[in-house]
Specification:
alpha+beta; Immunoglobulin-like; four-stranded antiparallel β-sheet
């Protein structure tokens, strides 16, 4: 049985490393994105120095926390590994703010080593291999305006508070004696009329009813 040569051993180790990157990259890391950024921060948000630099917001919209240590942010398509993100964990549904100030700080408040161009440029988030693009604005994001951020529209959903044919209780008050008591938990509405949604109220005189009909029949209404 032949022994494994140093060259084969190095090849196996390299292959194992690539496979591990593939496994890790197929799960939670793909859920991190650039959710929003601001190129011209005219006093809206100040950093620890009191400066109002541009900023980049990252969002983890995946089901698990993600450690962004070793990921990259860049504003240069020819230099994808421009700024390395330090070890910081973003929980599921959480956000991370990085100032695009050019100050290059990785302790405390995070500052990238580049600034954002108001006229528009490339912007991307890279996974730890420095090649796989997790999210990018390419070839450039559009021209920006002061104090107006740019980014992705949050996922929208529909919540039905009260659906059709839902049980309802109805009362047409004759005065203001109830005040806001009917909005309180435990209010007794047993004496109210039972019905189902939708519920509405309308009232008009016989003259108005005739006028409504006249719009269709083109007949005149009595005064």
């Amino acid at each position: 049985m032949s022994s494994i040569t140093p060259k084969k051993r190095a090849f196996i180790a390299q292959l194992f490393y690539v496979l591990m990157l593939a496994i890790l990259g197929s799960s939670a890391p793909g859920a991190v994105r650039i959710s929003e950024f601001l190129t011209e921060n005219d006093g809206l948000l100040r950093d620890e120095d009191g400066d109002t630099s541009g900023w980049i917001e990252l969002q983890n919209d995946g089901p698990a926390a993600v450690n962004l240590g070793g990921w990259f942010l860049t504003d240069d398509a020819a230099n994808l590994q421009k700024w390395r993100i330090p070890a910081v964990t973003v929980p599921s549904g959480g956000f991370l703010l990085v100032f695009a100030s050019g100050k290059d700080r990785t302790n405390g408040t995070l500052h990238a080593n580049f600034q954002l161009d108001n006229a528009g440029e490339y912007l991307a988030l890279l996974q730890p291999d420095g090649v796989t693009v997790a999210h990018e604005f390419t070839p450039t994001y559009p021209r920006q305006r002061a104090n107006i951020s740019y980014g992705l529209e949050p996922a929208a959903g529909t919540l039905t508070v009260v659906g059709r044919e839902a049980p309802a209780k109805i009362l047409v008050p004759t005065d203001g004696a109830l005040s806001n008591a009917w909005t309180l938990p435990g209010f007794d509405d047993n004496s109210w009329l039972a019905g189902a949604t939708p519920v509405g109220f309308a009232g008009y005189s016989d003259s108005w009813s005739c006028c409504r009909r006249s719009l269709r029949s083109q007949v005149s209404c009595p005064p």
